[in-house]
Structures
1.
Amino acid sequence: MTAIGQTSRCPDTWPDQLNFKNPVALARLFTHLFRPRQKVMIPTDLPGAEAVLQYALQEFHHLPNSNYSHALTRGYIAGFDISMLGHMQRVRERMAEHLSHCHAVLDLGCGGGTTAAALQAKGVADVWGLDPSPYVLRHAAQDYPQIRFVQGVMEKLHFPNQRFDGMSACFVFHEVPPFYVRQALAEISRVLTPGGLLVIAEPSPIQLRDSFLSMIKKYWWQGGYFQLLASLLHEPFVHAWHKFALADEAAKKALHILEEDDGMPVKCWLLQRCRMTGEPMWNAMAR
């Protein structure tokens, strides 16, 4: 687990080597958007490269070289929120509200640090952000220097048992194969305190399940927009995530669902770490 600071430097990747004033370079970048997804190319001397698993080394969201470049990640961080039409700010505020009473919270797959910042703004004293890409973490550290950002993956958390009483994961699990989601749930359970909370936000399955016309009828123009967005973006594991039996798999790791909100375009869950017997803490406290 590598700490990322404002001055952390990562080696350039191929998008960083393009001269954006050169029309040929711009044409190469533009045509790349329409090619079959490529394998992410990361430098051998990249900090933490050995921890990046193979499933993560493929492009997603039509972003050239995924989250591994200086040149494109800053724009992607801002562009993601713009593409979600303001919904993510409300989602982050709701996630932070659930965890506002916690002392220490780890934001999994923190990206540019916006969810971690929302947690701190709600009064959480000890906020950490975790992401496998040091490129996005460097932006996060620059924007939110008061938060600790570390490089790593949720399938192998380098934190002691019961280190945090809260965790958040915003648009992370749908980008991970089920095998590693199960590993991540085990690690989350290990690192959470009994009674600790996990808040998850993921793309709603509605926008992939329903037709364009059905989405228009139910949600007007935004329904059509998010149906097209979900259909066009490259998300290799999103269908597997929507089939994933989260309640059953989480329960095996002593995590029980307290709330489930089938929203559109974002679905949210609130889970609680229980005793290893499988009994939710809130059940025991209610007696």
2.
Amino acid sequence: MIKPNPIKRSPALVQFSKDHHFALLLIWKIRQGMRLAIQPERINNYIIFFFENYLEDHFREEEELLFVHLDKNNEQGKIAVEDHKVLRQIVEEIKSNPKSESMATGFADKLEKHIRFEERELFNELQNTLNESDLNMIAEKMDTLHPALKEDNWKDTFWVKNKN
């Protein structure tokens, strides 16, 4: 099987892709917790924490800095906005029922599909269609919004084997 070459990201989109990397780590942690038969409430509490401290800001930044450059009828933009809406709804359901195991799995599956879509399709379209001025403006705003990596200070590392 031939491995595809990595995608060269515009500097305007690099921080968004870095955020996606950390969201993929969240997905791995959720799935690792499930494999280790961790109580769903512990996993769901981390999902809520991560969403409120990282993903919600990420979604807002995408919507305000990236998606506004797409035509309102752009199909990929519509899909991305709808995905954000669905993920927000799942988090609300998790908050309502933190002991639900299926919610964590559904969240992880939806988030992974969403990230893959944005990385493989939407971001490619954006960096190929946005003009240099818009890309530079986005890069500058992202540098201001993300001067340093936000530390994930969650203490319950349920995904680490033998840390129950």
3.
Amino acid sequence: MKMFEPIEQRVKIPQKIVKHRPADQLMDGYIAILAGAQGMVEVNKRVRAERAVQVAFGRTSCAEQSVVQDTLDACNDQNFAEMHSAMGQIFRRQSQNYRHDYQREWQLLKVDMSGRPCGRKAALATNGYFAKQRNRRGRQEGYVIASWYEEIVVERIYEGTTQLNRALRPLVEAAESCLELDEAKRKRTILRVDSSGGSVEDINWALERGYRVHIKDYSGSRAAQLAKSVQVLFDDPAQPDRQFGWVREEVNAYVRPVHRIAVRCRKENGQWGIGVIVSNREPKDVLWLTGHYRQEEEKDEQILLAYVHFYDQRGGTIEIEIKEDEQGLSTTKRSKKRFAAQQILTQLEVLAHNTLIWMRQWLATHCPRLAHFGLKR
């Protein structure tokens, strides 16, 4: 299928060729990730020692692991720009998401960040938020995932203190370029984002671009103030300690009409935690997306429940994909000191993730049980 061809053609790493081309060494690293390597040091064991694995990928030999490491370290800023371009070309060739029927169904993109710990001496490694790891240094990974297809559209590395409010626009713009989203396609695309990307400025930027949004408001104090305008609260039948209702305060902060739903949950200390969901989705669309029936459109409680549950579903897509990559592709086990090298390595991991997603689709027609398999070996 010549999947690796765009990388061979576009990525020109300034390195002397002795036995293996730089592109061949990148392929050896990519094969090692698919073969279960938790670090590039395992290239020798996972690929070089396995003649059949080399032949299966069209290689007649394999570079030594230190040479693969040197190739990654030789990458510069120009190379990871070339790599991003090549990855976009591969995605457009193979992706289901790129061929999405926008007239028939909404496109759904989920944007999020995840911490990636690394050594103190690594470039852009700073103290930041890393789940269950206090005082840890590392970088942040920004993702855009196509929820319906489980494909990673875009992934970028940022310094450890970066939050989604700084990365949202570059990530969406990169996804927009990769998917070639024109104005008509953006109007049929939903961005589902958590509160870290829910500032008024970011929401207005997305609305001006024509996107449909389903985002949690960034400001906790504003959410508490807006919740005071709720006239009727409904109980969530699935979570007894959660209630929701329409925000009745007049909307004047956004450039397009939006619906706002206040949600409050009882915390362990007995106080209420309050958030506000901002959405410009129409009730009939949200009901359809959450599997409710159209005849429930006139029932306020069912409409509100659909808006809230559609936001809840964000945890069932990108978080699962990130966790599958951590468990199945050992993404948290690999890091490079140089930033350009880390960017290239990350793109190889993205390609490995998408390859497994595409491969599952190709093979499921011959072996249907594979359709339910995750990425973990």
